[in-house]
Amino acid sequence: MYLISLLGNGDTGKTTSFAKFLLKNNYFLEHQEEAIKNAKFDAEINGKPEDYYQFLLYISPQEKIEERTIYTAQKIMAYHQGKFLPFRTISYLKFTGEKYERVIVESPYKDGFAKGYITFSLQDIGGQFDLFDKQINGLRISDAVIYFADDKTTQKDAENHAKMISAFKLPTFVVINKEDILKEKAIDKLNMILTTFKEHKINVIDKIITSALYKEEEIVKFIENAIKWTIQKEIRIYDKNVFGVIRNVNRSIAT
């Protein structure tokens, strides 16, 4: 199984992008409408009606109490014949009127591993630095990183994250989010990140300037390409396939 980690400060678009990837690929299958309905209701009562995406990733009421999407924001999936599929189980929170209940449904693709499906896990390891230990443990077993930066990301932030990424020599995909806010400063932000990562000898595989909130197709495609590259050593850049990167099998996690 492969592990791809989303890293970056809080509110840089990790959770929104993660959720949009799941929805675009119909992760919740026939339960998707219900999952969205519950997430929107949750967002409404929490005063965030336009930002329901984060509520799709919560898997326990405890996370809601802490008001964080942290280490446990993780989904195990399978890739087969060009499709991203839910693997093992599908889970989401449902509000019954009195309390939250965790709904767990068996995936119809749970036997996919035996059929040769490629399995991977996508996880949001959080942006709060008080979660440093959990972030490091998450990166330690990762195969690749999708790094998110936005208008509030400073050079010090980039340097701190670069040290974490370079410690495990992880290939990295860079997302400069909130293009609508950054405008012409987006290029400067990207160059700052790339320069910092280069100084730490981080292998940046691909990069994008986008808006996770307004350019759904773009950010989802970028995440899909990052996953494909990680599991197949292939990514399409400028209509050319680039091969040849060897995965460090010592970082693979047990299935």
From TrEMBL:
InterPro entries noted in UniProt: P-loop_NTPase (IPR027417), T_Tr_GTP-bd_dom (IPR000795)
GO MF annotation terms: GTP binding; GTPase activity
Range of residues in the leader sequence: none
Alphabetized Pfam families for the sequence: GTP_EFTU
Domain named Tr-type G: residues: 4-216
Domain of life the protein comes from: Archaea
Protein name: Tr-type G domain-containing protein
Organism: Acidianus ambivalens
